[in-house]
Amino acid sequence: MVNNLSQSLEKDGLQEILDIAMSHGGDFADIYIEKKALNGIGCEDNKIERINSGTDAGAGIRVIAGDSTAYAYTNDVSFDGLAHAARVASHGARGDQVRKSRDLSTPLAPVDLSVQLRPDEVAIEKKVEKVLAANQHARTLDDRIKQVTVGFGDIIQQVTIANTEGVFVEDERIRSRFIVHAVAADGSLIQTGYEALGGSVGFEIFEEEAPEDIAQKAVDRALLMLEAKPAPSGTMPVVMAAEAGGTMVHEACGHGLEADLVQKGLSVYGGQKGQEVASPLVTVIDDGTIRGKYGTIRFDDEGTKGQKNVLIEKGVLKEFMYDRFTASKEKRESTGNGRRESYQHKPVPRMTNTLIAAGDEDPSAIIKDTKEGLLVKKMGGGQVNTTNGDFVFDVAEGYIIKDGEIVHAVRGATLTGNGPEVLRKVDRVGKDLGYAIGTCGKEGQGVPVSDAQPTMRIQSLIVGGTGGAPDSPNKKLPALANILSDGTPRIRRL
Question: What is a single molecular function from GO for this protein (predicted)?
């Protein structure tokens, strides 16, 4: 692993910075030093429109005293620069007792995240080739494809984390992602399709899937939506295919299981530990240790080991996701979910790789046993009001099921419901598991996540569409403004 910013400071210097941060008292202090190297390539209008490369470096220092937190950050990562930031933070959160930091030591990493082919060892020309290959393939597939956008990005993030409890972590995180977005038109009708691939991997990302294959999926989806019929509206059974990824679990319950929202009284799951909150068929897990996934971490952004946390087990609420600050309020350990977008942000509880565990049923049998309803094969973005659990999702690819058969594709569908209610209505769970990637937004911060689910059936869910409702043609769906509050967590699909 490449040595990072702390090499000029060493442990003694970092320990001195921590002592400065605690000079006016406090319960805890930490240092987060970061250096990021980013590359981005974008292709639009049949040509490379941008090639961006850059670095960003800085450090954040936090002091916690009781319920008060002070945070200061700086681009000056010299000893003097960090000492100045530490003094600023020390004045922001004063405690009754001045504590010295423990001797720094490094915990063992719980997962190996080494990559096969580092992005900084691959020439930019090779990356451009992959982007152009996807663009060319997409444009030759059908005359109705009018626009194609292809993006590739990679990041190498080096961090050093030290705190007054004696944790010292030097870590390197590498992620890559590839996105294709296709626009198809037939007369005045315009439809889009997208596909994304990404993970905690290097340039070997294309060994999983070729760029042409990603382009093919995006184009096929856009063309399918041209032929699709308007989605019906009303209440009906919904089968969520594994290919849809776990947007449902991420939005329907994931944010509500983050401890800061629970402690602020902003979660529908507050006070329900040990209670049944979902169908006995539903087990929800947040696992930061799954090798290669987009939300996988060796350590979170506070130096706590990445962990596998069972949040809901066979329908019973078992655990919330904690960072150090929320954990300290309950005199317990962090679950390894303290994450931040950069050194300019303090950490908060965030998801990593969140999933509904696979069951034991044949996925095809679930569809066959559904008399009528909607099959969702690809989700768009979504939002949730964590206070009451209400959510709304876009459906990027959906189909009508009738008498156990997939009849035809539909477009323009949305899913509206309440997280706890929906999870209680899950009555079939398949043995497959499909992942999706995204950037999760919360408190103005975006972090990489993945989510997953098996094929599963929800007994009834409100589907919004423009094609009428077979069971209740005049049913009026709730307005978006009545479902969501400002600043609600949301996931942006890549």
Answer: metallopeptidase activity
Q: Environment class of residue 109 by beta-carbon count within 10 Å: exposed (0-12), middle (13-18) or buried (19+)?
A: middle
Q: Distance (Å, rounded) from C-alpha 494 to C-alpha 483? A: 24
Same domain, 170 and 202: yes
Determine the pLDDT at residue 466: 75
What confidence score (pLDDT) does residue 445 get? 95
- Final residue in a domain of this structure, among 192, 211, 227: 227
Q: Are residues 238 and 222 in the same domain?
A: no
pTM of structure: 0.91
Residues 6+ apart with CB under 8 A from 242: 363, 430, 432, 433, 434, 452, 453, 454, 455
The confidence band for 98, taking pLDDT boundaries of 50, 70 and 90, is low
Print the domain residue range for 125: 5-227
Q: Domain ends where: 200, 227, 254? A: 227
On whether the CB atoms of residues 237 and 457 are closer than 8 A, the answer is yes
Specify whether the CB–CB gap between 64 and 27 falls below 8 A.
yes
Distance CA 470, CA 455 (A): 25
Read out DSSP for 386-449?
TTTTEEEEEEEEEEEEETTEEEEEEES-EEEEEHHHHHHTEEEEBS--EEEEEEEEETTEEEEE
Where residue 251 falls among pLDDT bands split at 50, 70, 90?
A: confident
| Whole-angstrom distance, CA of residue 409 vs CA of residue 228 | 5
